Amino acid sequence: MTVSYQLDVSSASALSFFRLLFRWKASIWKIVLKELFIWTALYLIIAFIYRTNYFMNENQKIIFEEVAYYCHEHMHFIPLTFILGFFVNIIVSRWSDVFINMGYIESQAIIIGNYVRGDDVETRLMRRAMVRYMCLSQALVYRDISVRVRKRFPTYESLIEAVIDEAGDNQS
């Protein structure tokens, strides 16, 4: 389930961003903390080995400096903007896939209207019931991702009551 940060973001204080950054539930720190500790530990180990005379002699330090300089100079062969372009492309394609796969009911409702033919009361009620169930499934999905829909339907019972009320209004 997603975690809503809208109340923290909507506040106008200068510290709201930092409060949001250090919030632990679904935090970015929770995701990168393990890797951050590993990289920090590796950096400290390499820095300790390089700076003490116990592990490396002067010849080895010169070789290490040459390797570090070589890596620094050749870092510009693959620009950071090029790598970030691939990253942004992946993120945008994921969001696009989410919205494409979300399941809007308009096209299915048109297909039901086309294939379930008939003008009698039973056929119309069957079409309405099918579209109502599709609306219910869409509301269940939106309930998990939208704060506005969550406030409108806080429980499953309120959602079912709204569907029953809608069915009762259409019957009369």
From TrEMBL:
The keyword Ion transport applies. Keywords: Cell membrane, Chloride, Chloride channel, Ion channel, Ion transport, Membrane, Transmembrane, Transmembrane helix, Transport. One of its GO terms (molecular function) is chloride channel activity. The chain crosses the membrane at residues 36-54, 74-92. The keyword Hydrolase does not apply. It is a multi-pass membrane protein. Pfam families: Bestrophin. InterPro entries: Bestrophin, Bestrophin-like. One of its GO terms (cellular component) is chloride channel complex. It is found in: Cell membrane; Membrane. Its main location: membrane. PANTHER family: BESTROPHIN, BESTROPHIN HOMOLOG. Belongs to the anion channel-forming bestrophin (TC 1.A.46) family. Calcium-sensitive chloride channel subfamily. Forms chloride channels. This is Bestrophin homolog. It comes from Gnathostoma spinigerum.
